[in-house]
Design goal:
The protein is of the alpha+beta class. It has one domain. It contains 1 helix and 5 strands. Strands 2-3-4 form a 3-stranded antiparallel sheet, with no helix packed on it. Strands 1-5 form a two-stranded antiparallel ribbon.
Length: 82
């Protein structure tokens, strides 16, 4: 609880992140402004934000805009009416 109050006042420092990830193909069910995410990014393990990552400078950049999930589809099973 104390950590969440500190994060609210000062923000997350993004010290605990994943290894840099570079998607190789479009993620199923997600679109980002009509294009697939292709840039390298890291995810903060404390707050969950995704941040751009620069391989050349080995630095964390600005937050990546969240992706919008695709529209939900209807189930494809049929019920028997016996």
């Amino acid at each position: 609880m104390l950590q969440s109050i500190i994060d609210t006042l000062f923000g997350c420092s993004h010290q605990h992140t994943t290894f840099p990830l570079t998607p190789t193909r479009k993620a199923a069910g997600f679109t980002a402004s009509g294009a697939a995410r292709s840039a390298t990014y890291v995810a903060c393990l404390d707050c969950g934000k995704e941040l751009a990552y620069d391989w050349d400078g080995m630095r964390i950049g600005q937050p990546v805009p969240p992706q919008e999930p695709a529209h939900e589809t209807q189930p494809s099973f049929r019920r028997s009416t016996a």
